[in-house]
Records
---
Amino acid sequence: MELRIDRFVWVLACSLCTVATAFLFVPDLANIYFSYGCYFVYLAFFVGLMAISLTWYRSYKLKGWRNHVMALIKTIVLIGIFTSTFIILIVTHSGI
């Protein structure tokens, strides 16, 4: 069985985004979001960049257009997740 570190890093990035956003919508944890939530999001962003680069590295290692298309789909999905997380972060801190 091959060690899939790219999948683990990808799940870690999505989990950090989910936890940071969940802190906002749970009333007892909202103060944690306003204190440390942006750091969760920034950490998730850097872990996500690492996940994207590992995904593309694996795609080039395996070769074939199917692997490249799958890497492109994963990249687009992760960018969409980060876009929605950053929009939530910006809106909550701007007071809109």
Note: The chain has a mean pLDDT of 84.
---
Amino acid sequence: MATDSHILRIEYCTLCRWLLRAAWLAQEVLTTFDTDELTEVALVPSSGGIFRLTLDGEVIWDRKQEDRFPEAKEIKQRIRDRVAPERSLGHSDRQTDAPSNH
């Protein structure tokens, strides 16, 4: 069991009406990570076209820098890489370089 607490903040623009997008992403993260991996997810109303995710104070996604919104898979991978690097995300994991047999 992890002993560190990890906090994800999802800051979103209320004027842009991005609450549903932020809440959906929060739900995706909360259903993926256990409480010993992620102890808090906070929705933070803002303005100015902000859609930014920070994990323990470190920016892991900024819509203005990335020039797009994140896919849930990308956010799950970035969180996992920081809080539980050995953890498998199942179908959300990155594809390996090995060719598929399908």
Note: The beta strands are 7-13, 40-46, 51-55, 58-62.
